[in-house]
């Protein structure tokens, strides 16, 4: 059968079950440049044996290390990489998902390899011990991760009989051999007891016909055994009575303060066609004028509010309401909770109205009607779990369905958001704790919420300042895409004069009433010193905070906007339905000078930015090294520790004059792309000038300097880091931006990356975070190698990287001519891949403008140069990475001074 599809979706779909009861969705997309497949198994860490926690995750790792048909470890990844593909997997609570994409011509061969994971994995004893070390490295990687640390506290405070309480990742302890039972034998047993066709679902996407895909599907996946395991069920409740009414206090690694209220609900998957929690989240999490968040911001207690998240599973659902607290908010936790329950009473009294539901329904219907194609791999991996949850006819529509307003259902769920059905978690530095969570050593304390507090909160009334949302003025009414006067694929420069440039492209391919606006405002004043850079970033944060309540209805209506500072000034981007984008842009520009910010909000936003920058020193070592690299090489992007010194000194009184100076001399570059006619693009330009011209003089583009390391020899920098792991980053910089150099760097990364990962991560077991990549900075390509390791110091890691580079030319010479040509064609296919949707095309065009690729053909030139490269060319290039007298590149090496172990 064919599921119901978006009117804007011209792909063919076919749903079926194979004879072995494997659920399958086949997608024929004649326009796709990549084919993809995703197979999910209704097995996750909930199924781990109590004395083998982490087993589902470990099994996921092991399936990549060879099958009877393709026994060589690493061959699968190398095959995918050589043919322009990628692959990955994840293990969750109740599902494990495997997926890949690849060039269309090699999809059948990719399926041949992929399917064997589920038919004849080798589970070679030789790799069992190595891969348990990789799992342990992955566990250690997150030891200082506050999300993982908080998750463990949650696990320790639920019903211990529920599988949610299990340790999901695994480590050397849980995956050790046991008396009379080896890890290898338990692995085989777990695979046979939990991997079965009747617990699996598969999605395939390809330009091949449905008939051909069906033939492949039956041939490759039909042999998967149906062990008749049935759907796993969880009987124990997540929370017992004694697990409710708790207040959990925990301390984080980073400087952060959060208040989380979680209300246990019954499972709601059966109501996917009505989306009751989506509707309630919309009302409770509203951020516009009169909202709970606006009131709490005004009082200086809260910076953020999110409603509707929380853990969920086959027999449980948490409805979470989470607040990002200010330091002052820590003294008003009880007041915040009181105001929340007063607001929930207002929602019960006035919120359950059909027109409100229909407004949300209209937004989702428009999103479905004009749904755009995503990347092939994202499509299959995003749809595969739907095969377990939705009816076959709703596999595509289910995420968007709001079939009918069901007030009784809404009232029933809303009635569970009470103080007597509540768990509170408070996270902040310095809280008093009396225990440590296992595995992650998170300090926490558990107490019971006093009954008097519950009764008082239950009796709270809505604050007079609170009101529910008005009808949304930003919901698009023009929903018919228009045909361009001239069908072209390249933007035209409509205005090019000192200080202002306007590009326009009325998109003809995707046929959606949407648009992208990109506005880069260059101002030398924003970057002329580290102090100015700090103030410019603060100004952007202040403006985003000021705009939040005004623009939130636009975001609800399917419009998005971002504002961010960069090396030349700052950029504003808008996306979504084009009908009301001019209204949103006018609102943003009218508020650009901030006026006179409220002193309390200024202090709160400044402190929040200080905390964010301070917390960068607590991220994992490899992330810190990436930050150090860009700061070393880009003078307009100073390190956080330097910016912090200046930010702490900034006073409110300085900001109005500084912001005025930001706009005094500017260069504006704009791209209007999508369902925009030329006259509308010119009207947007006039709108920009109307806001800017009275205050601004035209200026040249801001210079974006890049430090050259070519003539300095090898640069080595150390960076102090309080973390048990060591890390190393080695970066090779190109002297030029020529297409041939771009081709060399890109092809080297394409060929080296999977082998580098397999050699240093899988074979040598140096760490879980291992990779190679092409990292361009200010238009200059660069090749980067990075490792974070719990087992080796920086010098050992450096030796391993250099040895890999030294030996790789020999490996290149062992390439067959077929492998060499396939590798080049795979990269060329990636470079030639068509844009999947309006947004991806807009981003590519905007990057081209930023890179001064004003012919919009740089990737075509690079693709052509890749085709010209011989193996000897690439060998010479790789040798030049290590022996700089042979080439024009030098490395920059960074590593942290890790705490002694």
Automatic annotation (TrEMBL):
Peptidase M16 N-terminal domain location: 23-160
GO biological process assignments: proteolysis
Peptidase M16 C-terminal domain mapped to chain residues: 186-363
One cellular component term from this protein's GO annotations in UniProt: cytoplasm
Tree of life domain: Bacteria
Cofactor: Zn(2+)
Known function: Endopeptidase that degrades small peptides of less than 7 kDa, such as glucagon and insulin.
The name this protein goes by in its record: Protease 3
Organism of origin: Aeromonas molluscorum 848
Lineage, top ranks: Bacteria, Pseudomonadati, Pseudomonadota, Gammaproteobacteria, Aeromonadales
